[in-house]
Design brief:
The protein is an alpha+beta fold. The protein has two domains: about 130 residues, Serine Threonine Protein Phosphatase 5, Tetratricopeptide repeat, CATH 1.25.40.10; about 150 residues, 6 Propeller (Neuraminidase). The chain contains nine helices and 14 strands. The protein starts with a helix and ends with a strand. The relative contact order is 0.06.
Length: about 325
């Protein structure tokens, strides 16, 4: 009898200890999640999940943490957690449907992506922005299905030189003779700016000399907010860059090559920028096309001369 009682007490103490550890891990995970430190929150959430905390309030943030990963293989690991969270509770944000659909699309599960984007649209009938986002996502699904229905033999090669890194590089812009290339890169935040973000955006530039790309260098823009490459002139002497601000979703700025460096950003005039988000542009020898993320594309007839005169002095802050 005493042995059985002793064994029962050991089991009870083990359960209580596991519950305490589970509660501690979950509390730490929620705190880290609140500070958007998703990579640190994930193992804590998984510890709680593996200890028995499997309700929607745990599975949903696990899905979000995976979704925020820089690696696609890790991002799609969030799919079952989003699915379980949405099936297990009506309190999960409606945007979880949109996030799940995006992961389906990323994982090439086009039918499920289309079905879930459509569901999200149905659930957000009174939200105009959500409806526009859903319509665009549904359009992307249809485009993807059309393109994937006709397979093509395409070989993708890693870009040579020192451009790529263990982090993320994207949105390259190249001069007409392919001698200059600038791109946006995510780099670890060292605390200099936006201390709440794990990564910050920076613009790098590299030059093609004797068929070899030089070591990329940062183009300093002096902004504490989002920045990115938007376009480059055919001769590589002028660059259009995207800069966000505390009261501005994002606008187009111009910088000009000056010796070995670049000038301070100058805001493109209000005839180009608007209250919406401008993020990318393309420049030809004569006409200039400007793209907005509000769904409208303006094909201007601005000449290079007008572009030169369309800038207002500004630091981009």
């Amino acid at each position: 009898m005493m042995n059985k009682l002793f064994t029962s007490l050991l089991i009870l103490f083990a359960i209580l200890d596991a519950t305490a550890q589970n509660s501690k891990a979950l509390t730490e995970a929620q705190q880290l999640f609140g500070f958007k430190k998703y990579d640190q929150a994930l193992p804590k959430f998984l510890e709680a999940f593996n200890s028995g905390a499997k309700d929607a309030s745990v599975q949903y943030p696990i899905g979000v943490c995976y979704q925020k990963s820089q690696d696609i293989d890790n991002q799609v690991k969030g799919i079952p957690f989003f699915e379980n969270a949405l099936n297990g509770s009506k309190a999960i944000p409606l945007t979880a449907n949109y996030d799940l659909a995006g992961l389906y699309l990323l994982n090439e599960q086009l039918d499920k992506a289309l079905e879930t984007f459509t569901k999200y649209k149905t659930l957000t009938k009174l939200d105009k922005k959500a409806q526009a986002d859903a319509d665009r996502a549904i359009e992307i699904c249809h485009n993807a299905a059309a393109l994937m229905s006709v397979p093509r033999d395409i070989k993708v090669h890693n870009f040579p030189g020192q451009v790529n890194s263990v982090y993320t590089e994207y949105n390259p812009v190249v001069s007409a003779d392919e001698s200059v290339m600038a791109y946006t890169a995510l780099r670890p935040n060292t605390g200099r700016t936006r201390s709440g973000d794990k990564f910050i955006e920076e613009i790098y530039i590299t030059y093609n000399k004797s068929q070899s790309w030089t070591e990329p260098k940062v183009v300093p823009l002096g902004s504490d907010y989002n920045v990115g490459t938007a376009g480059i002139s055919p001769d590589g002497q002028k660059m259009l860059v995207f800069i966000g601000g505390i009261d501005d979703e994002g606008s187009l700025f111009q910088i000009t090559k000056s010796g070995e460096g670049w000038s301070k950003p100058s805001l493109i005039s209000p005839t180009i920028n608007s209250r919406f988000l401008e993020s990318t542009a393309s420049i030809s020898q004569q006409p200039v096309g400007w793209e907005r993320r509000d769904g409208h594309l303006e094909n201007g007839t601005e000449s290079r001369r007008l572009l030169d005169n369309a800038c207002e002095p500004g630091s981009g802050n």
